[in-house]
Amino acid sequence: MTIPIPAEDPRHVPNRAVIDPAAITQNTRALTGLLEEQTALMAVVKADGYGHGMLTAARAALEGGATWLGVAHPASALALARAGLDAHILTWLYEPRTAATVLPEVLSSGIDVSVGSPEMLALVAEAARQADRRARVHLKIDTGMGRNGVLPWQIRELGPAMAEDDYTQVVAAWTHLTSADDPADPATDQQVELFDSACEALADEVGPVPLQHIANSAALLTRPDLHRDLVRPGIALYGYPPVSTDVPLRPAMTLTSRLALVKEVPEGHSIGYGRIHSTAQRTRVGLVPLGYADGLHRAASDRCEVLVRTESGDRRAPQVGRISMDQIVIDLGPDSDARAGDEVFVFGDAGGVPNAPSATTADDWARAAGTIPYEILTSVSGRVTREVLS
């Protein structure tokens, strides 16, 4: 028996991840504006919508022109289907036990599934027989990622099995690019060449394949020749393009907290575990009740800034010392008028106060931690309350 653990009452916790669905809608609309009429957009809302809330992100993206939704896990796909959203849904990551349990219901719900191996094909075919419904299959082709997907030379072996099975129908072929965020990398063209030859072999075995999809956020923005029938943006929907672009995209998540304490410390005073930071002068420091258990990466310690909204205006303040499990310390400066209870913007949109400094971004935190904004957004933990703007 599973006993649920009561969640913390969000009224008693100052930390918020404020989600702006309008930003996701606007970002989706900007991305669909890059596409030809025949190319559809699949909003990738896996990982709980990159931490923004899967259903919130899905609804916002559909409003912006998406007609497909993509998620990794079948359980997520079922949640989308049960929400009654008007969209095609694709799911692509499952193992045998999950498949036996959930794929029959997935197929009964009209959800498309990806197949990336002969074993996965057998799982889908069996689930389709149980559901008594033909499975709509997207064949994943491994062109160099080395994860899920059949190798191009396996098409001739797998094709006849798919063609002969009355319970499977190949409706799409797809692949995933390894290096699209580096437009100069020749790997993308090499992958596309492999993909195209595999698709030709697939068509020889099963007949015409209606859909091809290759482009992630980076390829959508830089390679219009790879848009094909369907594009699959993820991170760009949430306001963080993985390549330089003039397309107007804005972050959809703002992470905020409040100062729990403000105090004056002398010059040379150490801050945090390991004493990696000592104050260069007498200064005032603030304690923010947000730490690595909430999603702030410890590797970013002493390398980033936050925005503090004080009575006299918005001020940037560096985070100093090690990031702790539940708290960070920021250096407010010797003359700061900040007080306990003042709002702190860790990253995102601070509201556009005229002539004020902007808040830091998930990109800033990613650079500080030596990672990518995807990880920053999806690391914001469940104990941080999501507040969705209306």
TrEMBL record:
Keywords: Isomerase, Pyridoxal phosphate
Gene3D superfamilies: Alanine racemase, Lyase, Ornithine Decarboxylase, Chain A, domain 1
SUPFAM superfamilies: Alanine racemase C-terminal domain-like, PLP-binding barrel
PROSITE patterns cross-referenced by the UniProt entry: ALANINE_RACEMASE
Cofactor(s) in the UniProt record: pyridoxal 5'-phosphate
Pathway assigned to this chain's UniProt record: Amino-acid biosynthesis; D-alanine biosynthesis; D-alanine from L-alanine: step 1/1
Record protein name field: Alanine racemase
